[in-house]
Write a structure and sequence with these properties.
Strand content: under 5%
Low-confidence stretches: none
Structural class: mainly alpha
Helix content: 55-70%
């Protein structure tokens, strides 16, 4: 007999709410100067972030109250639609180029990023596929290669934009899900070596990627070029000290640090709120990961368990990459901090996914 629905995980819900609130405050603080300079309205970015936050919370409340098993039926269609959008966005004149990548569909400042939605669609489909064919996952050709081939195809299409950061998050979360489903570590390890060779090929094929790698290793070798973003990020984090300069008192947001409201918002947070503020935010993300793993362990069926793992993986991998970049531990990939950075597609998608995770927690054993 199926377990009756209970209240959602209050720890997870509280952590999501706190991170979202911090994000809205920091988007305003990080973007006010830039928004006033570009649009004459210091609230330009935060007003849009609030709009997408409202839409995202509405999506979260909806998915939190729809039984997660309902998404199993729609997973194939969602994946097909997202593949279609990835094709459409590559059409010149249709896909909008922003930041050097043709990864947007929309008009003017409003648009969607299909690669963001592919992350959730892929997790939904893999959860369905692996829950139904879990007994074959230890077989290399029959069990492992079909899902990995699908992930590779989606990654390849995302790289045509190109959008290495979003592609890396999708691949990372998918591999975590596939490993959790029972794939052999020896199989994944062998494929990982091939993947490293392929990644090196991608880097060498595009000079800007190679420049990002060399800049990451020694940003001061090219302080006004490839190393500029990392250096300015460290210049923001360093003066923050233990307690920060104070909310709204960042200096680096005055046109020194590129993308202060998106990719490098954690740098501004660390500058204004210090080490304590940065650690507090990281702890909130760890609460989300902890409760996500708990929901996966306690889920009543394999589909729910794998879906919880995949959604938690998206959050965890994206946080790891973003913070790794801003503190100079990883090369610049152009990826946002979940629920904190400015960005409508990412914020709406993540809140929708977290609503599904909250629904899974409502049926925990």
């Amino acid at each position: 007999m199926a377990k009756a629905r209970s209240a959602p995980d209050i720890w997870l819900l509280a952590a999501i709410g706190l991170i979202l609130t911090i994000g809205i405050v920091m988007v305003y603080s990080a973007s006010a100067v830039l928004a006033f300079h570009e649009f004459g309205d210091r609230f330009y970015y935060v007003k849009r972030q609030l709009l997408f936050a409202v839409l995202g919370v509405g999506a979260l409340l909806f998915t939190m109250n729809v039984h997660y098993s309902a998404w199993k039926k729609w997973a194939p269609m969602a994946l097909i639609v997202c593949f279609g959008l990835l094709v459409i966005v590559l059409i010149p004149g249709v896909g909008v180029v922003r930041g050097g990548a043709r990864s947007w569909l929309g008009i003017s400042s409003f648009g969607i990023q299909p690669s963001e939605f592919m992350k959730l669609a892929m997790i939904l489909f893999l959860s369905k596929w692996l829950s139904e064919k879990q007994q074959t996952i230890t077989h290399f050709s029959k069990g492992l290669m079909p899902p990995l081939g699908l992930v590779g195809l989606a990654f390849g299409m995302i790289m045509l934009q190109p959008d290495l950061g979003t592609g890396a998050v999708m691949v990372g979360a998918s591999l975590i899900l596939i490993f959790t489903a029972g794939a052999r570590l020896s199989h994944l390890g062998g494929l990982a070596m091939i993947g490293v060779v392929g990644l090196v090929g991608l880097i060498l094929a595009a000079p800007y990627r190679l420049k990002r790698i060399t800049s990451f290793l020694d940003p001061w070798a090219d302080p006004l070029g490839g190393g500029y973003q990392i250096i300015q990020s460290l210049f923001a984090i360093g003066p923050g000290g233990l307690v920060g300069l104070g909310l709204g008192m960042s200096r680096q947001k005055f046109s020194y640090l590129p993308e202060p409201q998106t990719d490098f918002i954690f740098s501004i947070l660390a500058e204004e709120l210090g080490f304590i503020g940065g650690v507090a935010l990281i702890l909130l993300f760890l609460v989300v990961v902890w409760r996500g793993i708990r929901a996966a362990i306690a889920a009543p069926d394999t589909f729910g368990s794998l879906l919880a793992v995949g959604i938690t993986g998206i959050i965890g991998v994206q946080v790891l990459i973003n913070i790794g970049v801003v503190i100079g531990m990883m090369p610049v990939t152009g990826i946002t901090l979940p629920l904190v950075s400015y960005g409508g597609s990412s914020l709406t998608l993540l809140l929708t996914a977290l609503g599904i995770l909250l629904n899974i927690s409502r049926y925990s054993r």
